[in-house]
């Protein structure tokens, strides 16, 4: 590919980041406002397949508290890339950049968030729901995070 075909368009990047922040905000509000057990929450129609494949490929991944350097090591990136490709045709926007909480006991904040493909977010959050890590979040007080920011304010996520 010719490098001249790729342009760093600030307005596109800002729109993407705004969408990612809105997605994270919606997810957080859903978790906090759920009166039912999060294990019953369905994020996609493919939750069962995503969870089964995720645990088959990553049986020992501790989803309660993720370590960013382990998620993004060369070996891990290769394994995740193979996992992601499995859902290319079945999960919409499977590779859209999505914010993922590193520690399931915390909210979305700059210190507790990393960027992952949407299917990786879904795999981890479906596992957290089913394995009980997202229980009790309704008792957390909302923090002052950048999630409620307007598009021009997302510079705090640099």
UniProtKB/TrEMBL annotation:
UniProt domain Polysaccharide biosynthesis: residue ranges: 12-135
Record InterPro entries: PBDC1-like_dom_sf, PBDC1_metazoa/fungi, Polysacc_synth_dom
Superkingdom of this protein's organism: Eukaryota
Protein's UniProt name: Polysaccharide biosynthesis domain-containing protein
Recorded GO CC terms: cytoplasm
């Amino acid at each position: 590919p010719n490098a001249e075909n790729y342009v760093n368009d600030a307005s596109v990047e800002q729109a993407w980041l705004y969408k990612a922040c809105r997605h994270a905000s919606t997810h957080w509000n859903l978790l906090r406002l759920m009166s039912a057990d999060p294990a019953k929450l369905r994020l996609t129609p493919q939750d069962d397949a995503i969870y089964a494949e995720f645990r088959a490929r990553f049986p020992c991944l501790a989803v309660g508290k993720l370590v960013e350097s382990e998620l993004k090591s060369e070996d891990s990136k290769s394994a995740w890339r193979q996992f992601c490709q499995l859902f290319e045709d079945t999960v919409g926007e499977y590779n859209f950049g999505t914010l993922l909480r590193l520690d399931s006991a915390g909210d979305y904040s700059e210190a507790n968030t990393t960027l992952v493909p949407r299917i990786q977010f879904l795999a981890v959050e479906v596992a957290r729901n089913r394995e009980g890590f997202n229980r009790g979040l309704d008792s957390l007080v909302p923090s002052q995070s950048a999630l409620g920011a307007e598009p021009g304010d997302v510079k705090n996520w640099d």
